Amino acid sequence: MSSTTQEVLDQLVSSYPERSNSRVVIVDIATQQLHLVVNNSVRRSYDISTSKYGIGSESGSNKTPLGAHYVKRRYGRDAPPLTIFKGRKDTGKVASVEYEARATGDDFVTTRVLWLKGLEAGKNRGKGVDSYKRYIYIHGTHEEGLIGQPASHGCIRMRNEDVIELFGQTPAGSMVYIAEELTNG
Question: Where residue 13 falls among pLDDT bands split at 50, 70, 90?
């Protein structure tokens, strides 16, 4: 079932009034795009990569979960672009960007990390489906050539410049909604 950006925003305000703020991130898996919505208007859209394994919330599935989330924790505020994070810690290493559309065999988390916590019990929060316990992030990637197509292991990957920009616009607590498909409108 697809919905419009405005329908998603209305649903989030209605369902999570305590989390309503002027900034919402909406991920559209069908188009492989992430939209930063500020004051009910799409301020910026970015090409992304979601899971190459598809959509799902099950632990161990490596799939991208759907539904309402929020940014629980953020990492990398002052890290140089392409810094590699392991367990959300700066490794002191820097990745080289792969601009060709090919998988390198590495799944580096680079530059910035926005760790998501699910809000929907049984869908993306709770036993066996918990986005936070699955370590679902929005993060940079060294495989920038794969941006725009499903390529991740469940997270939402972004180009490094883009994730720096998004990081600066999304404080902890910001709402994130991951949709299978949005329609124009």
Answer: confident
Confidence at residue 2, expressed as pLDDT on a 0 to 100 scale: 66
Q: Is residue 40 part of a domain?
A: yes
Domain region containing 59 = 5-179
Burial bucket for residue 47 (CB in 10 Å: 0-12, 13-18, 19+) = middle
What angle is formed at CA 11 by the lines to CA 8 and CA 17, rounded to 5 degrees? 125
Residues 185, 179: Cα–Cα separation, whole Å: 15
The 10s digit of each residue's pLDDT in 98-110 is: 999 999 999 999 9
pTM: predicted TM-score of the whole model, two decimal places: 0.94
Domain with 84 in it: what CATH number? Answer: 2.40.440.10
- At 49, list the tokens: 């990569």
